[in-house]
Amino acid sequence: MWRQHFISQQSSFFDFSINRDFSVGFSFSIWLVLLVLIIIALIVILKKWPKLLSGVGNFEIDKGEFGLGSGKISFKPNNEDRQIAYSIWVELSTRKIGISIDLDHDVIVEVYDSWYNFFSVTRELIKNIPVSKIKSNGTEKIILLSIEVLNEGLRPHLTKWQARFRHWYENEIKKQDGNDIDPQIIQAKYPKFRELKEDLLAVNKVLINYRKKMHELVIG
């Protein structure tokens, strides 16, 4: 039976009507259905976007930046890799180690204290990484790079200079007992100060680049 529309609303997406007998008619266009599905799909993708990006894209580290020889390290980092890099970055950023050294103001023995502590903390951090995580290609490479930075970047300088300088510096401090002389002036009198300074600043540059790379890895 034909029904006369009492109220009718039409668009390209839907058709809505109320007839004179108060029956309601409502129909969807296929385009409206597709639009809703697309919106839902976009919402789902945006919510999962961080997970979809996790592990996507290579991260590259040039070992030449650290004075560790030639070659590049390339891997696809995941969230666990970034967590490890973050822990290392925090240690580098909160100690006198990942920032520029100025020997007109910084005291060498304090720098050595910071370096030694970082060496110990990083070694413990690496030891405490679960074996299951080391199976990750990225995690393994971060650990190997960290060990290289410690053994080839930091250790040689500490082995060559730390004990010798500390012994000399402690004796000089005793000689100056009662004299108001800045430690920066005293340390500059070290017989091999220029050589020590050049080597120390070279290691400092390695550690700064190391910190920067860990930060780049963290922020993705």
Describe this protein with a few key phrases.
220 residues, 2 domains, mainly alpha, 7 helices
N→C terminal distance: 66 Å
Percent helix, as a range, is 55-70%
Note the total helix count: 7
Average pLDDT reading: 79
Shape label: elongated
Task: Walk me through this protein's architecture.
With 220 residues, this protein is mainly alpha-helical. Helices cover 61% and strands 11% of the residues. The chain is built from 7 helices and 5 strands; from the N terminus they run βββαββαααααα. The protein has a 3-stranded antiparallel beta sheet. A two-stranded antiparallel sheet has the order 4-5. α2 packs antiparallel against α3. The longest helix has 39 residues.
Write the layout of secondary structure elements.
Elements: E1 5-10, E2 14-19, E3 24-28, H1 30-53, E4 59-62, E5 72-75, H2 79-93, H3 108-127, H4 131-134, H5 137-175, H6 183-187, H7 193-219
Antiparallel strand pairs: 1-2, 2-3, 4-5
Helix pairs in contact: 2-3, 2-7, 3-5, 5-7
Give a brief rundown of this model.
By secondary structure, the chain is mainly α. It is built from seven helices and five strands; from the N terminus they run βββαββαααααα. Strands 1-2-3 form a three-stranded antiparallel sheet. A two-stranded antiparallel sheet has the order 4-5.
